[in-house]
Amino acid sequence: MLDEVDLSQTLKKKVYKPIRKAQIARIFELSELVYERKRPVIIVFEGWDAAGKGTTIRQLTAPLDARGFKVLATQAPRTHEKRKPWLWRFWMNLPRYGQIAIFDRSWYGRVLIERVNGLTPMPQWIAAYEEINNFERTLADDGAIFIKFWLHISKDEQLRRFLQLATEPENAWRVTAEDWENHRKYDEYLAAVRDMLTKTSTPIAPWTVVPSTDSEVRLFHVFNTIIRRLETALDLPPTTWPTLAELGNGDKNETKSGDKPKKKDKDGKQKKAVKTDAEALALTDGHASKKAKKARHKAKHKVDDGVGDGAASEVAQPGAIPVTAPELNPAKPAKNRKAAQQIAASTDEPAATVMEAPNA
Length: 360
Description:
This protein has helices at residues 13-37, 53-61, 79-82, 88-91, 113-116, 122-141, 155-166, 177-184, 186-200, 215-233, 244-257, 277-304, 309-316, 337-348, 351-354, and strands at 41-47, 69-73, 100-104, 145-152, 207-211.
């Protein structure tokens, strides 16, 4: 089963987002039917360290009614639990009728951790396969619905995630010395996982191996499997969902059919779109009108300053020959209007009167 899993699958978040919302809504509807029909549901999450078990459980339980499910994080057996049959503590945490129990690690630690670390003698963990099958068969005969997941990642991917978590101060505590030791024994665990999947995957409680390299692919497989299993157990018509290949092809088609990215110049800036002829003509007319307004504005100011109508005619008729005005001595600015009129009158007198000689 592990050899058939493609760990290189990816899924764009924006493509999966509408499908994910529909899956979550469907899971909520099925959880209500589970309560109405009084069917206990047992969801088991097993997988490699840092494969995303906790994140997946949070995403799964977010839309559910808190009164209808419980999450059980399985730890090493305590002292009083070691004095009882090893399955006793799991019997005590079974879901009620109409309730969903989600196990973050489970009774399969007997054939994984206890086997690899030598905590249980070989005859006992070999016998555990049949004990687990009998345990699940008894619960299934009572109406329990089993959904079991193994979240799978490669050894290199697990190392990459460990290193990433270890370098983040807020997440460094999550990677313990035990996790590093388990990573060192990856190949031994891999052999134990293969035996577990082969010997405990039954028609009433089948295993689903989930590629967990990509988070969106992981959620897609988990949600799709839960919906399919619940609909089958509740005798409901199956809901049709697009396959992972179809979603990937849809993403490629969307990229091809979308607008092409704008070209960039040498400086890395986007080139502006070429304007149409009408826009270019309107822009030219606008610049021309602005220049004409500026010319009229200058002419008006010259008239107000006392230059005369001749200056205005020069602006209006740029082709006319300019008339050279007589040079005048600069006069001091007049203090009042009468003084200004006197200065203007003196300048209007003909030059001959000024050049007359006195009588002998």
